[in-house]
Structures are given as C-alpha cells and as structure tokens.
Amino acid sequence: MTSVRERSGEAPSRLLSVEEARDRVLAAAGGPLPSESIAVGDALRRVLAADVRSVTALPPWDNSAMDGYAILASDTVAATEIAPARLRVTGEAAAGAAASASVRPGVALRIATGAPVPAGADAVVPVESTTPLGPDGSASGPRGRDASGPLPAAILVHEAVRPGESIRRRGSDLDAGARILLRGDEMTPPAIAIAAGSGVTTVDVHRRPRIGVLATGDEIRGPGEPLGPAGIPDANGPGLRALISDFGGEPVDLGIAKDRLDDVRARLERGVAEADAIIVSGGVSVGPYDVVKLGFEAVGSVDLWRVAVQPGKPFAFGLAQRPGEGADAQPVLLFGLPGNPVSSFVTFELFVRPALRQLAGYRRLLRSVDRAVLEEPITKGAGRRAFLRVQVTRTDDGRVTRNALGRVPVHLAGGQGSHVMSALAIADALAMIPEADDSLPAGAEVDLWWLDRG
Ligand code: AMP
Ligand code: MG
Q1: Rounded to whole angstroms, what are the CA distances from 57 to 116, 183, 224, 431?
Q2: Which of 66-80, 192-206, 315-329 has the lowest mean pLDDT?
Q3: Residue 403 contacts by C-beta under 8 Å, 6 or more apart in sequence?
Q4: Distance (Å, whole) CA 391 – CA 159
Q5: Ligand 1 atom, smallest distance to 236 CA
Q6: By CB atoms within 10 Å of each CB, which of 75, 214, 431, 437 scores lowest?
Q7: What is the band of 14 on the pLDDT scale with cuts at 50, 70, 90?
Q8: What's the whole-number mean pLDDT along residues 144-150?
Q9: Do β-strands 63-64 and 167-168 pair in parallel, antiparallel, or remain unpaired?
Q10: What is the pLDDT of residues 42-56, one digit of tens each?
C-alpha cells in the first residue's frame, strides 16, 4: 500500500514540526470506529456515536419540592404568623403513588417530597410553615413538626403561599425528546445519570479501540524475571497499556520481542489481526538491532519521521491492512515510539493519544492547554520544541497556585533526560518550550499541558 510519505510527496530527511507530524497521523488514521448499542449503565467512558434524547419529561409530572401539604394558594392569602389559615387534612400523597384524593378549597393533603401534586392543588406549603391540629382543634404537635407520624386532622398555615410555590413543574428540567447529550460526548457519571434518569435504556457508542502494545529489546525483562548482568525491567509495556486503559481503550499485550525481525514480525502479525492500532516501543532508531521498521514494512507500510521535538525522536508511523480486508477498510495504525520511557510517554501524548481519541470518536482530540510561568531558567536543544516535565505548587486545600495574571508557576520535576522516569512520575504537566528558544529566563510564560485532565 502507499506509504504515508509517498502520499505526501515528502523527502524523508526533513524535520517535521509537531503539528505537521500530528496532522499527518490524524489525516491517515481514519475513524471513528463503528458503533454498537449498549446499556446506559455500561457506558462509562464510552464516546457517543449519536445524540441522545430524553424519553420522558423531567420531572414526568408536577411534583412536590418539599415535605408539606398540597393546598390551594388562594386559601392562604390572608394567612400570617399570628392569624393562620386553617385547613382540613383529608388524606395524603406519598412518593410512588397517585394521590388518594383531590384538593378543594379549605382542604389540604399531606405530601412527601417527589410525590405527584394531587388534582386541584396549585401549591405546596412546607411542613415548617404549619402546625398540626388534632380532631378537637387543639395543636397535636409543635409548629413545623416533621411530616412523619399520624395524619393530623387539620393544619394551621402560618404564611401566605403563592400559586406554584414548592411545586416542580412537569418538564421544568427537561422536555420529553430534548437533546441531552451530543455525538462525541464522553459518557461521564453525570451523563449516565441524566440518560438513565430521563428514561433512556441504551446508547449508541463507538467500539472501544483495541490497541496492541509491544515492547522490544534483548535487554527488556518481564515482571519479576531475573535481570542478570544486562537486563532492565519493562517499563513501557505496562506504562503504555495503562495509558490506553486510562483513555478508555482496550490494551492487547503483545509481550516483549527480542531484537530479531522474525520475533517482532510474528507479534506484529498477531496485533494486526486483533487490534485497531499497535504501539511498539524501542527499536525504531537506525542502530544495528533496530528491526521494528523492517517488521512494520513486513505487515504494512511505515515512515520513519524526524520530528522537531524533545524528547521524542525518532518516531515511526504507518498503516497496515488486515488480511482479507479491502483497501478502503479502516487500516491498523502502526506507531513506533522511542524506547526511552520518557520519550515513549511524550510521543504517546503528542501523536498517539490524539489518534486514538479520533478512533474512539471524541470531538476534542488534544488536551486542554493552560498558561504557565517558569520559576527557574531553562535551556534546551535549539530548533526543537521541548516538552519539559514540570510540577506546580498547590495550597494546603489542593488549589493550584496561580499568579496575579492567572498563570501557573511551574518548576522542573527533576532531570529532563529522556531516561529519567523519576521526574515523569511526579510531573503534573508538560511545559511546552517553543522551537525558537534555546533558553528561557525565569518568569517567561509558556503553554502548559496538564497530564491529569482531559
Ligand atoms: P531503543 O529505542 O530500543 O534504542 O531504546 C532506547 C533506550 O530505552 C534503551 O536504553 C533501552 O534499554 C530503553 N528501553 C527500551 N524499551 C524499554 C522498555 N520497554 N522499558 C524500559 N526501558 C526501555
Ligand atoms: Mg532497543
């Protein structure tokens, strides 16, 4: 199949900007994935493939906002604290049942919060504004007594109640058929609550992207495996799978490949058969054992890009066709990320996450951008955009500190080498240092990508 570079007619050596590289990935990635209909209660973090409309109005009928008495407001126009209105209590309206009687002049029905307003009533007086009376007309309990216990024979109402008071009108929250959620919205807990609460039982959501993750390197060891003289534990496999689960995708563990083409290729073939995208870490440089590019070429097509970013070079992107599928089917995306854990994390953020969000059906593909101010001077390589791992300060109650202009003061989370995982692990955000600056003084303002917020 045509390679991504051939399509763009590009010489391989030119340094791409972050935006150029990302635009190419997004243009080639296709998506979103097909949709399926699932129960609302199972839809957490799924992305809607169609707008959602309420089935019922909310509330579905006029109901009471208070525990109290359903009345006619006109019965209370002259009521005051010392000259209350007296109303006979003829029954009650409980939540979950239609009222047993209707309200007429001079009559009240006890009503619970959420119970349907009985016929005839046009207001609810809260129990706090009433005094219960016994059959002999004397007070049977204190003013404002809670509305549980035996039904009083009558009540005194100590205030003038306006028509409509303490009644939640049918449809005052939502009309039946109202558009409550939009295609491309993520199903959050409140989204699930409003869909379920307005009578929706199933929603159309995009299939969750299945993402193969393959670590490579003769030195990489699985969990608990002895390291021997030259082994290191696998950080990228578990780290990348966690990034995928965290964004709502389904990771497929393709294991750890030796730096041998046959091993890499066999695992890529499994990934192409099972996954919507494959992320490989390590082995994409041009070293003697870097066989990932060859592996990608065996299952599809790939370009090795030199992106003007730090950390993150090199980065490979390609496409594979699933065996037996036509050329216009959704391709399997192939991402080759640098092996250094910080580089693989940053390139995931820059290029992979937006593409996976496009597959998943999100409208917004990029993280929200904030503005930061550097608390210390920084230096970086010229001509490349740097993504520094930084920390913010928080007040004791967890508030992010901002200066008078609303900028977030940031300091380096630790060493900025692409192998320094300890700084990544404690970073709150990535600070973006433009290509043109090889150093910036303390006090300089830069863009900030929060790592813990979509
Ligand atoms: P490579 O991109 O394969 O040249 O790897 C660059 C550096 O990243 C080397 O020091 C590797 O040992 C290290 N590295 C590669 N893959 C992993 C991994 N899965 N976990 C931890 N470190 C890795
Ligand atoms: Mg390697």
Answers
A1: 14, 21, 56, 46
A2: 315-329
A3: 373, 409
A4: 57
A5: 19
A6: 437
A7: confident
A8: 75
A9: antiparallel
A10: 999 999 999 999 999
pLDDT class of 1 with cuts at 50, 70, 90: very low
DSSP designation for 41: G
* Chain-centre distance for alpha carbon 324: 35
Give ligand 1 pocket residues (Cβ under 6 A): 215, 217, 219-220, 232, 234-237, 281-283, 285, 338-341
What is the SS3 string spanning 143-179?
CCCCCCCCCCCEEEECCCCCCCCCEECCCCCECCCCE
Sign of the torsion angle spanned by Cα atoms 7, 9, 13, 19 = negative
- The pLDDT, as a whole number, for residue 404 is 97
Give the number of residues written for the chain.
454
* 15 Cα: distance to centroid of ligand 2 (angstroms): 23
Residue 2's pLDDT band, with cuts at 50, 70 and 90, is very low
Q: Which of 311, 307, 264, 306 is nearest to 289 (CA)?
A: 264
Work out whether strand 385-392 and strand 429-433 pair parallel, antiparallel, or are unpaired.
antiparallel
pLDDT at position 11? 52
C-alpha 176/C-alpha 170 separation (Å) is 10
Asked if residues 276 and 322 have their Cβ atoms less than 8 Å apart, the reply is no
Q: Alpha carbon of 101 to those of 11, 86, 89, 121, 276: distances in Å?
A: 83, 19, 11, 11, 61
DSSP string, 102-127: ---TTEEEEE-TTPBPPTT--EEEEG
Alpha carbon distance 280, 337 (integer Å): 6
Kindly give the distance from the C-alpha atom of residue 353 to the centroid of ligand 2, in angstroms, as a whole number: 23
Identify the sign of the CA torsion 67, 72, 74, 80.
negative
Return the structure tokens found at 136. Answer: 């002999």
pLDDT of residue 275: 97
Per-residue confidence at 185, pLDDT binned at 50, 70, 90?
very high
Residue 148's pLDDT band, with cuts at 50, 70 and 90, is confident
Distance 293 CA to ligand 2 centre (A): 12
pLDDT in tens, 313-361: 889 999 999 988 988 899 999 999 999 999 999 999 999 999 999 999 9
User: What are the backbone dihedrals phi and psi of residue 353, each rounded to the nearest 5 degrees, phi first?
Assistant: -55, -45
